[in-house]
């Protein structure tokens, strides 16, 4: 079960899209997983043949759980059937590579996710409770005694979901025949989440990520006004040549300019993991997309710096559609190396965003407004946008952040080169 | 197309984009974007949908003329009068 964001602890395998014996290649979508962020299509990161499934449809399992065994190309195809496969964690015999499909990147945050230990699951020490800080906080909020909760996380750790399940069980009237204890980590999936549940789950996921961000990330904020007259004039001309199906939105120019500027400021593009900065492999820009019924997700458009404006527009259009339909791919959810938010549509001029951990920067854009603009001793009226940078002061300093915004400004003055 | 048909068409496409709206409560004389939360991608999608349904391509330069449902009717009527 891949980690699809800093806030994810578990996911429900909704559907396998392949079967044992199928040949698969890197990037194929092999399963659909339900998370707080909606349904996510899981991509695989090796070429090979599906050997067997270790998690069945309908099961909810913690992040890090092996979902399937895949005989990767070049490995002995004759695979002994693994004896009595347990769902947690890897117990694969050597010739088969245990696969937590795709998108382990960004590297899972350190504190909450002990890497799945090879060999049998660790026994929880009786002396010390294995519980994530998040789960502990939720337990306190819900008035649940953590010692009485059965952990289903890696190594028997108590997750937030366990705590919530315990709270629910406590709240519900006790069933007349005492229910059989649910086997650890093998709880049957809840029936398809209701819309209100999904709303609440997404709200909790956002709450967890944003609280972590403000707790851990020392933000600094910078802002600058950018004259958009050249960019908008260029866009008007360009869109005249295009049919309505191929028209560009100005936000596409902003995304491209951010990506190009990042080439010279790698310290803003990547992750803060285990007390150190880890640069992103590629410039994958997460785009904050709000959902009509509340909440938001910020899936990535990959390699934005290498795409032309039409390709970015196609990617953005496709992404918005799939966000609203509730189906995203694992790499889109997990890969973003920076986030861009544009709240201008709602009419605000300034946005100072909260960084999405473990990323280290967020670029915000307000709405384009006509403003008096002084240049060379003359005052004119220009369309102006306010660009802001929220930076993680552990990874970068305001001086470099300021240079980044200046570079962004320069790029937007030469729209034909974007 | 009659005015009512045009209005119904625009409302249908609008509902596809913003399923939460109650189209019977849209005031045809008030700016649509003041009644429905639409971002620029939604507006583009609406224009694409109208183009697909009617063949009429609305250039960006005309967007400022088309703010209300009545504006849509007035804009599309002469372009659709033979259909």
Give a verbal description of the structure.
The complex is a heterodimer of chains A (418) and B (83). Chain A has 2 domains: 1-216, RNA polymerase II/Efflux pump adaptor protein, barrel-sandwich hybrid domain (OB fold (Dihydrolipoamide Acetyltransferase, E2P), Beta Barrel), CATH 2.40.50.100; 219-417, Chloramphenicol acetyltransferase-like domain (Chloramphenicol Acetyltransferase, 2-Layer Sandwich). Chain A contains 8 helices and 20 strands. Chain A has helices spanning 133-142, 160-171, 195-216, 229-240, 250-262, 309-325, 330-334, 398-412, and strands spanning 10-16, 23-24, 29-35, 38-43, 48-53, 60-62, 68-72, 97-99, 219-227, 270-273, 276-279, 285-287, 289-290, 296-297, 300-301, 327-329, 338-342, 361-365, 369-375, 378-392. In chain A, helix 1 (133-142) runs parallel beside helix 2 and helix 5 (250-262) crosses helix 8 (398-412). The model of chain A is unreliable at 78-98, 100-127 and 173-191 (pLDDT under 50). Chain B is globular. The model of chain B has no long low-confidence stretch (mean pLDDT 90). The A-B interface holds A 236, 239-240, 243-245, 247, 249-251, 292-293, 316-317, 320, 345 and B 18-20, 37, 39-41, 44, 47-48, 51, 57-61.
